[in-house]
């Protein structure tokens, strides 16, 4: 069942900001909760649908069945949207003239 780990990614009733942290979408409660929030931003009710699917077991196809993209593709999109450059890493700037 997905809901308890999803809820465990939050402190009390306060949702945490999506930060783009983590190396994998299933890395831990905080990372997974934020990733599932991102998925919910793509489709309202995503977590409820996913949880319903999980009642019969897990399949790697659930993300693509619900959102049209697999978990790895969604994770790449999530990281591209929310990741911040590591401290000390230069930010690439491109100028056109």
TrEMBL record:
Pfam families to which the protein is assigned, alphabetical: BSP
Top-level taxon: Eukaryota
InterPro entries named in the record: Uncharacterised_BSP
PANTHER family, per database record: PLANT BASIC SECRETORY PROTEIN (BSP) FAMILY PROTEIN (PTHR33321:SF12), PTHR33321
Protein name: Uncharacterized protein
Organism the protein comes from: Rubus argutus
Lineage: Eukaryota, Viridiplantae, Streptophyta, Embryophyta, Tracheophyta
């Amino acid at each position: 069942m997905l809901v308890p780990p999803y809820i465990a990614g939050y402190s009390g009733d306060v949702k945490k900001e999506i930060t783009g942290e983590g190396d994998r979408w299933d890395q831990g409660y905080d990372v997974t909760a934020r990733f599932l929030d991102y998925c919910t931003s793509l489709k309202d009710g995503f977590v409820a649908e996913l949880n319903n699917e999980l009642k019969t077991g897990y399949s790697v196809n659930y993300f693509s069945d619900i959102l049209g993209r697999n978990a790895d593709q969604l994770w790449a999109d999530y990281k591209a949207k929310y990741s911040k450059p590591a401290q000390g890493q230069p930010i690439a700037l491109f100028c056109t003239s």
